[in-house]
Write a structure and sequence with these properties.
This is EngB-type G domain-containing protein. This protein has two domains: about 70 residues, no CATH class; about 200 residues, Rossmann fold (3-Layer(aba) Sandwich), CATH 3.40.50.300. Helices cover about 25% and strands about 30% of the residues. The chain is built from six helices and eleven strands. Strands 5-7-8-6-9-10-11 form a seven-stranded mixed sheet, with helices on both faces. It has a four-stranded antiparallel sheet with strand order 1-2-3-4. The protein starts with a strand and ends with a helix. The chain binds guanosine-5'-triphosphate and magnesium ion.
């Protein structure tokens, strides 16, 4: 099965968010339309029906996503995965650990300049990282639905490790961006020493959300960062940002950039890492990412207890 990207459409309704994705198999004459309703971060219902592949292709070109490319979470056997279990606009399968993903409360806790100054409680946390200006702070604001993290058009806005407490039970962590071309040599070295120290010593880190700008072709520095995290056994999810930016010349459409990035990264992993398409402007991928984070968090909680 392959997912025809951009067929993932979002229709906000008073009772939740209706999403439509279109799937097509290269060898089948028909494609499957999958409608699903997400309310308060939970699946309410999902309905599938078939249309002709021609009709589906007229909507969008195929993004090759084989079943082998899916991220299958703990508690799910690959053989039992069905289309309805895959979050739209992602390769993420929803498993039994997915729970209440709604954010009811969010507050800034503290900024730290060193890993050892970070909060010392046992709450699980997710680190949001990526190149300067990729949209880390904007994504956090979109997820919590308030302007909590400072954003800027100028790269290099976030300079410290910022902890945000969510529902009084877990943290989202906004980190300085890497690869800021105009940063001084010493600032760049500082980034690697203090954020690398954070990743290697943070026992409560559930996973890293590695943000990748989908509006530009793959960048070496993102691949290097992913490889470094992989080598250090730090679980990561690729969060493609700015998927609303569809303008641009050949090779700069988000779908092309995402496909190229996956081809480059795919060779490095035995099991495919999870990825999801997002936009902080349209809210694309918001509920999906929160649901995915809930299943990672609940599994982590389960393992830790
Ligand atoms: N079109 C579009 N623009 C975005 C999106 N996310 C962020 N931006 C814009 O990108 C710029 C940078 O966003 P930030 O959230 O400050 O980026 P950051 O990664 O936190 O940057 P640093 O803190 O400097 O590392 C801002 O002008 C945002 O408005 C998105 O999904 N779509
Ligand atoms: Mg920032």
């Amino acid at each position: 099965m392959g997912l025809l990207d951009h067929c993932v459409a979002h229709y906000p309704q008073p009772f939740g968010r209706l999403m439509c994705s279109i799937w097509a198999c290269p060898f089948c004459p028909s494609a499957v339309v999958d409608l699903c309703l997400i309310s308060n971060g939970r699946f309410k219902f999902s309905k599938s029906f078939a249309i002709s592949r021609r009709a589906a292709s007229s909507v969008a070109p195929p993004l090759k996503l084989e079943k082998e490319a899916l991220f299958v979470p703990p508690g799910v056997a690959k053989e039992e995965v069905t289309i309805n279990m895959v979050l739209p606009g992602s390769n993420i399968v929803v498993g039994p650990y997915a729970g209440d993903a709604q954010i009811k409360q969010a507050q800034f806790v503290k900024s730290s300049s060193r890993a050892k100054d970070c909060p010392k409680d046992d709450r699980p946390e997710f680190a949001i990282i990526g190149r300067s200006n990729v949209g880390k702070s904007s994504l956090i604001n979109a997820l919590v639905r308030q302007d909590m993290a400072l954003t800027s058009k100028k790269p290099g806005k976030t300079q410290l490790i910022n902890h945000f407490l969510i529902n009084k039970s877990w943290y989202m962590v906004d980190l300085p961006g890497y690869g800021f071309a105009h940063a001084s040599e010493s600032a760049r070295i500082d980034w690697s020493s203090f954020t690398k120290g954070y990743f290697l010593n943070r026992d409560t880190l559930v996973a890293v959300m590695l943000l990748v700008d989908a509006s530009i072709p793959p960048q070496r520095i993102d691949l290097d960062c992913a490889n470094w995290l992989g080598r250090n056994n730090i679980g990561m999810t690729f969060v493609f940002t700015k998927c609303d930016k569809t303008k641009g010349g050949k090779g700069t459409r988000p779908v092309d950039n995402i496909r190229q990035f996956q081809e480059l990264i795919g060779k490095c992993y035995g099991e495919p890492p999870p990825w999801v398409m997002t936009s902080s402007v349209t809210g694309l991928g918001r509920d999906e990412l929160l649901l995915h984070m809930s299943q990672l968090r609940n599994y982590w909680d389960n393992e830790a207890s």
